[in-house]
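name: query_chain
kind: protein
chains: 1
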Amino acid sequence: MLTFVLIALVLHIVLVNLAIGLSVTIPILKRRGEVELSKSLMRFYASTYGLAGVFGTAFTVFLLAFYPSLIGFVGNIAFVPFAISILLIVLHFLSIVLYWYGWDKFTPETHFYVGMTMAVTAVLIPLGFRAVFGFLNTPLGLELQPKPHLDVLKALTNPTFLALYPKSILASLTLIFTVLSSLRREFAKLAMVTLALTCVAGMVYAETLIAIPYKFENAVRSPLFYAKMVVVALQFLALATFVRTGRGSILATVCAFMGVALGELLNAVSQYPYAIADVSALPKEMLGIVNLSAQNPLTSGLEAFTWAFLIPLLIASSILIYLISEPFRSSRTKS
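structure:
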């Protein structure tokens, strides 16, 4: 069961990271006069934006089907952060439509401001979701009277949220700069800077988790942790090699995607079987709700049905990304 949830979550997060990076980079590139590159990136982004939502929906549906009591609890408690992010998603989608269809119709200034709206909303969308992830680390802001609800202002002071959110944005920029390094060598230099900053933010986030011994100890003992360290080191070395010799961008790009996926997996599984890592902060009557291993397992038939849904989705998504990315493969070949 957890496999389905994690696959959908990781793919959603990877695509969201790519989307944030593209949203920030596209209007800046166009402003700098690199119109063809920015338009190619925008075409790719507009064509694949829905994929992140598809896997986000799959993640939610899997959770709802597998752990209904958990979704009911978290959805009710974290309604406000979710609502803020959903509103920003709507504004972001509107800005994507306006930016694409207004490419040759708006004045350069108007088009740039629409692009900045696209960038800002993309950066702010994770704010609400990462606030929820912070709550899943330790339920700061949870109030039980008169009924369970979330003190949103207190939740936003959660140390794990304050560390995780900037780390997420820096990781997004690192990913897109690494992906674009094969087209412009200057992006490799930017990627090295943001990768170093991401590592610093990661260490700050790890330090906040010391207050949650169960999750911290599981994280530092996990093979995923050491795999993540190796992948990050390889990414940095590949970027440095590319800056010097013009080789290594493919390895750096593969490592960039793997780094995002491994980081998300590590953050999720290090608190298993609990949905909320700091269970000491919860009343006893809620422990059954947040204990994922205590939920009723699916039958083998339903698990097979879920795989039958997920595999075609993965194949179709891979084909779409391959077809839409053809201009970038061609540009890399020419360069």
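note: The longest helix spans residues 35-66.
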